[in-house]
Amino acid sequence: DAEVGDGTTSVVLLAGELLKEVKDYVDEGVSSQTIIKGFRRAADLAINHIKEIAVDTDRSDKAKFRELLEKCAATSMNSKLIGSQKEFFTKMVVDAVMRLDQDELNEDMIGIKKIPGGAMQDSILVDGVAFKKSFSYAGFEQQPKSFDSPKIVCLNVELELKAEKDNAEVRVDKVSEYQAIVDAEWKIIFDKLDSIVATGANVVLSRLPIGDLATQYFADRNIFCAGRVSKDDLDRVCEATGCRVQSTTTDLTAKHLGVCERFEECQIGGQRFNVFKGCPEAKTCTIILRGGAEQFIDEVERSLHDSIMVVRRAVKNQTVVAGGGAIEMEISRYLRETARQIEGKQQLIITAVAKALE
What we know:
The protein contains ten helices and 14 strands. By secondary structure, it is α/β, with parallel strands linked by helices. Strands 6, 7, 8, 9 and 10 form a five-stranded mixed β-sheet that branches. A four-stranded antiparallel β-sheet has the order 4-12-11-5. The protein has a three-stranded mixed β-sheet with strand order 2-13-3. It has helices spanning 8-27, 32-53, 62-78, 86-99, 175-198, 212-220, 231-241, 294-316, 326-339, 346-357; strands spanning 55-56, 110-116, 124-126, 128-132, 146-148, 151-155, 203-206, 224-226, 245-246, 258-259, 262-268, 271-277, 285-291, 319-320. The chain is 46% helix and 16% strand.
């Protein structure tokens, strides 16, 4: 599941069948070493034979290659719940994989968000990043909710007045000294906020909370902010817009900011979503799934994950073999014939493997 993504059931069935075929030999007292040697030998023979009969895929013709990828995606969907909508989803899956960095093909860069409600066909592919609106404080409503070509800053900084974490004891003699401590706290947070505004950022995202003071401060300056954004989402925003997560606001300059064509907060189903579209570095995309019930959407997500992995595999690996059980039968035939030329007990084991494949 982690390596190839699809074909999990087939693998389990095949393993069970192999064990079933050699069970008799185990009962008869054939040593396990002999059986394992036979299995290893059969595996080597099978793999070499597959390499001989595999067909290279032609990548020069883009349209044909895409058609092949769509076929691969559709095949993996046939046995799943979303089989009925496979035309709709195959296009989405292939588009999603094609958006990734073709050298790395990191499937974590495809975000999948689930929103109950609506029909399966209401699912959309966002060219960029989309994530659920995070927790917001007072003052949020006054912030602008959409920008064209915004500058984005990603932080790992808490923007609120903090209570002391440790038991700090401060002894003061005069009221003015106490006031000085309070003023210092306010100065620290305002310095942070000023340095962010000075960079010209329109969208401020942070992994840690952004308090009501900061929210209002940004609202007054027409800046959108969101705190408590999850790590995955923040990483994907960075990949897409070309910014870096900053752990301090000192020395923030324009070069640390990311850009995209359009940012907006929109309503999808019962949720508010922050959507970044048209990202220049877009090596990432987001699939927003809709459907009647949560269990159903979870199942759709698993099916799409399998399909994405298969397409990703097909892009990485340039060869294909015939499907539908044809390759298993061919290896079975080949192993039976080869086993006849092998002396000793291994012959029996290799024949058993051939039978298991059949």
